[in-house]
Q: What sequence folds into this?
């Protein structure tokens, strides 16, 4: 079930973006809206919403991955609200990117998810096995934190406030979570918890 906060955001966003003129924004947000910008990572989509909860599986079919916007996809930002922004992917898919669980400012959230450079250019320098794992939205041991982010996105900030932490806390779905454990040099050592099915290969 979609969270009440997300429902409220969706309804408010629909009216805001459909009923009122465009608003002015700070320079850093104006630059992101002007584009071009690219998805930092593989973004999980549930009913048209990319939530900062970032759970992996479909909210309808557990053990089945949710829909995904691949990393490096061109994103066009249309409008920005206090806790969400409206955007379209390069194939015309309408997306609402929403802060449902964390408390970070919308500009920080946008800067995490959107990049002025295409991350696929960086990924091209990775070993083939790492490139394949990122493309399949899964993580494998010895990945760097940057590679993990590209593959499965950011851990929810309310559970992992700092990316410097040795453990990152994610959710397989709304009810089951898992953790990624990193070594002192920032490489993925192991997993724990209820992993998404595609990780268990």
A:
């Amino acid at each position: 079930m979609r969270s009440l906060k997300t429902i409220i955001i969706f309804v408010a966003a629909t009216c805001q973006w459909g009923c009122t003129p465009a608003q002015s924004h700070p320079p850093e947000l104006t630059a992101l809206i002007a584009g071009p910008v690219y998805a930092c990572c593989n973004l999980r989509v549930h009913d048209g919403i990319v939530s900062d909860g970032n759970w992996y599986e479909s909210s309808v079919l557990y053990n089945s991955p949710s829909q995904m916007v691949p990393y490096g996809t061109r994103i066009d930002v249309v409008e920005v609200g206090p806790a969400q922004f409206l955007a379209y992917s390069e194939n015309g898919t309408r997306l609402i990117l929403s802060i449902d669980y964390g408390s970070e400012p919308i500009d920080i959230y946008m800067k995490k998810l959107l990049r002025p450079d295409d991350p696929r250019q960086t990924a091209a320098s990775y070993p083939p096995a790492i490139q394949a794992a990122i493309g399949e939205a899964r993580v494998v041991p010895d990945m760097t934190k940057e590679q993990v982010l590209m593959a499965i996105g950011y851990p929810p900030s309310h559970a992992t406030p700092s990316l410097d932490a040795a453990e990152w806390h994610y959710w397989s779905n709304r009810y089951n979570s898992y953790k990624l454990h990193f070594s002192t040099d920032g490489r993925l050592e192991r997993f724990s918890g209820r992993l998404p099915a595609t990780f268990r290969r």
